[in-house]
Amino acid sequence: MRIILGLLILVAPLHTEGFCEDLFGKPTYKTSLSEAVVNVIQKFFTANQADIQILSRKSGDDFSLLYLVNEILFRIRGAISYMHWHEHLPKRIMPSTYNMLVVDDYRSFQRIYERLSKRSVNFDGYFLIIISENLEGNMEATLNRIFLDCYNRYITNVNILIRRADPDSEIIDMYTYFPFTETQCQDTQPVLHDSFVDGKFSLNVTIFPNKVRNIHRCPFTIVTWHNPPHMFIKNEPGRYILDGIDGNILGIIQRKLNFSLRFDFSAANRGNILQNGTATGALALILNGHGNITICAHGYVFTRPSRISASTNYFSASVVFAIPARKCYSSFEKLFFVFKHAVWYLTLGTYVAAIILVAVARFFSKKVVNFIIGDRNDSPYLNMFTISTGVPVYRLPKRNFARYLLMVWTLSWLVLRSAYQGALFHYLQKSEPRPQVLTLMSLLNNGFTLFVPEDCLPWFSDFPEIRRRVALMNMSLWEYFEKMQDPEYKGVVLTTDIQIDYYNHRNRNKTQIKSLEERMFSSPQNIFYPKYSYLVTTIDLIIQDCLSGGLVTHWVKTFLHEPASESSTAHNPISYFDLKGAFWLTSMLLLLCILIFFLELLTWKMRNAWIVKICRRKIPVNNRNVH
């Protein structure tokens, strides 16, 4: 029966020589392999103030591996905190970054390797593998198999300590592998990194060098697609040019890590990871190992990290429902849209005050009337109206105060009229929607359909009333935005505020797309990789540099406020529909003038007829009196 041992020793050791002697026999404490291990612990693990997790397992009945483990534990007692697990590995502890595996052959390594999980170890951490026995057969092939297993789980910070094959030699060799070199890509061949001779390492190299800092132009497959403003893809002869918020971030990463780009555009959407473990869209390509990186406005979802790895978030967008354009003001209403209500109220109040002043002045003497209104001013109300429309007055008052009032009235209306005419051209061509307060429930009650991307469908599963009105998007986002130019369109689409702002900025001559005031949630933007990818930590450092330098904020502002194309900003010639309100107002005024003209003719004829009738009644009476 195999011995099952689990020790947790923090700072102060709990075992003694007598304890070790009772179990295994007293060790010699003089093996060069344990010396090499302790040397690595002192130079690297202790320097990083690390807590080491020691995992050991033997495949045979020999106790030499346990002797070695006991000797290592005895040598590092009191120097560093460590946890030792033998045979049975932990299931629920904090994942360890610094790990030491003590094995006697490839089979014992395999047994530990198969039980490694993200719960127990951090695959992006550091691994020191100690092989206690000389390997049978081709040692290089066995080491290659170990490194290949490590690379398949994206473990790159790994070294192997093994005694040199010569039985009379006490030299301990440290092997590692470099997956990316100037001549090889994804290479797992063992490389002699250093040798422990006479109590020290001869080359004194960096124990765990960064192996993914320079990819040496090895190709990485990028899963992405054209999705402004996050990703712009321009196809030029022999290459693709990337731009946009995510495109610039990918460009910085590519230049920093020095890898070549190989694109996979087969996925046109982000996709989703299903409950049965399968995936769709871009995430399926990453999950199946067909891509190294996917970047294109990927939002962080808590269910995704269980199957794939995610970077730190570099940007956050609000997820909202874009709603159809509301009905716009008519061309007639635009004539009054230039000024706000307060300006119109002030203008009307000025007119009313002037009319009251003229009406009150008529009750005073002629001298007061001439002082305020001016002499020879027979039509003060008509003069006020003509001056406000820009028609000059030919009969000026003689008194200075009346002239002062005329000057103030003329200048006031000159300013108002100039401001009105200057802004009118802009507002006649502007499609200004009517204000309207909408909520998600009001949209559902009015028969609207909620179009959402595939990866967002699970979000509504817990809301059956909303889920019944949810449909999968079957067009591009920009096609939905074009449909929303029709106020009668009964559909809304789930998107981000960034994409709505970008569309509105690029199409300023169209009706602006609005969003519901209700924000669904905030979506942190991330890069996704295969599970346990060695790129996570390195790329996170690059992203942090971009964030601290303000580059991401700069790119967001650039692509949301870049100069729009001439077609989206140039004013079109004023059309009949733009002036239809002015024509309608002119027609109404002309009809009113014609009606007043006929009323005046009718009044004149009725007045003459009344005078003639009065005269006929009076003449006979006078004649009788004369006779």
TrEMBL record:
It is found in: Cell membrane. This is Putative ionotropic receptor ligand binding domain-containing protein. It holds the Pfam family LBD_receptor. It comes from Hermetia illucens. Gene3D superfamilies: Periplasmic binding protein-like II (3.40.190.10). SUPFAM superfamilies: Periplasmic binding protein-like II (SSF53850). The chain crosses the membrane at residues 342-364, 404-428, 582-604. One of its GO terms (cellular component) is plasma membrane. It comes from the Eukaryota. It is a multi-pass membrane protein. Residues 29-214 form the Putative ionotropic receptor ligand binding domain. Keywords: Cell membrane, Glycoprotein, Membrane, Receptor, Signal, Transmembrane, Transmembrane helix. Residues 1-18 form the signal peptide.
